[in-house]
Amino acid sequence: MKIISALLLSSGLLATFPLLAQKDNVVKFGLCTDVHIPTMHDSEYRMNTFIEAMKKEKPDFIIELGDFTIPKPEFQKTYDIWNSFPGEKHHVIGNHEMDGGTSHEKALEYRSMKSAYYSFDKNGFHFVVLDGNDKTDPTKKGYQQLIGKEQLEWLKQDLEKAQYPVVLFSHQGLSIYKTHQETYGVENYQEVQDLLQEHNRLHPDRKVIASFNGHTHVEYVENIGGIWYISTTSMAYHWLGEDYEQIRYSEEVDKKFRWIKYTAPFKEPLFTTVEISTNGTIKIAGKKTEWVGPSPFEMGFPENLKKYMHPGITKRNLKFNLE
């Protein structure tokens, strides 16, 4: 190769010889989040729609970002539909994976996951899955959201060993999003961001370029220190709460699925594909549907949340730099 390069250089052809041009690495994955199979009466339809779309799209892998289902026989068929995808599949553990008395360990076992946080390489990118369910206080009841010390140390070591640009996945976000109802994001988000920024300072050629999360049931995108933090909306609905109770389908459906009336469901399932290239682009496919029944804003939600809470996923073309 050195002899060929020397000959080409001496003849002035090296700069224009097309076979020596470096090809950009490209990876494509299908993404959905917050499916909430136990909540919705039509979860099988929603999952079928996603899987059939992914069979046509043929991404390098698919991933769901948590709040998927719990291990009960009545939800097994929908889970089997997910598993029918012939390609690579990945899970993220959400806060509702442990509902109904399911332990963290059982949630992992059901998904054949050895750990709730792990990493893998694909097409010249390094992907890291995190678990935002670590506890600040093990004696405290209810949902807690934290990337604990042990996991942070693992993340630091994993990033150090990474050979490619890095993309993160988590259920709870690694940045903060606030509504009039709730604050979303892991409690130690600043500590996590500082770790990521330090990695990027030391390794600009294999830096963290993006972090995808679910949990919020809304979509927002922000760039912090050169890293894109991307929240993807639920496949199924936006949670409204008991103050906004509304029968969305029928009395019969409501009797069997009692939580739907506290949501604003999407008529069709929302999901997307993401294509990332080392040429510095993150392309997110768009998808639109409608609310079932009145929108949250017809029911009194603050108008300033409209840009985050809508029945769709926005088509985006985000830029990043690798040095």
Spell out the blueprint of helices and strands.
Blueprint: H1 2-11, E1 26-32, H2 43-57, E2 61-64, H3 76-83, E3 88-91, H4 104-110, E4 118-122, E5 125-129, H5 149-161, E6 166-170, E7 177-178, E8 183-184, H6 189-202, E9 208-213, E10 220-224, E11 227-231, E12 237-239, H7 251-256, E13 263-265, E14 272-277, E15 281-284, E16 287-288, E17 312-313, E18 316-319
Parallel strand pairs: 1-2, 2-3, 5-6, 6-9, 9-11
Antiparallel strand pairs: 1-14, 4-5, 7-8, 10-11, 12-13, 14-15, 15-18, 16-17
Helix pairs in contact: 2-3, 5-6
Verbal overview:
By secondary structure, this protein is α/β, with parallel strands linked by helices. The chain has a single domain (25-319), classed as Metallo-dependent phosphatases (Purple Acid Phosphatase, chain A, domain 2, 4-Layer Sandwich). Helix content is 23%, strand content 23%. The protein has seven helices and 18 strands. The protein has helices at residues 2-11, 43-57, 76-83, 104-110, 149-161, 189-202, 251-256, and strands at residues 26-32, 61-64, 88-91, 118-122, 125-129, 166-170, 177-178, 183-184, 208-213, 220-224, 227-231, 237-239, 263-265, 272-277, 281-284, 287-288, 312-313, 316-319. The strands form five sheets. The chain has a six-stranded mixed beta sheet, with helices on one face. Strand 1, helix 2 and strand 2 form a beta-alpha-beta unit. Residues 1-20 have low confidence and may be disordered.
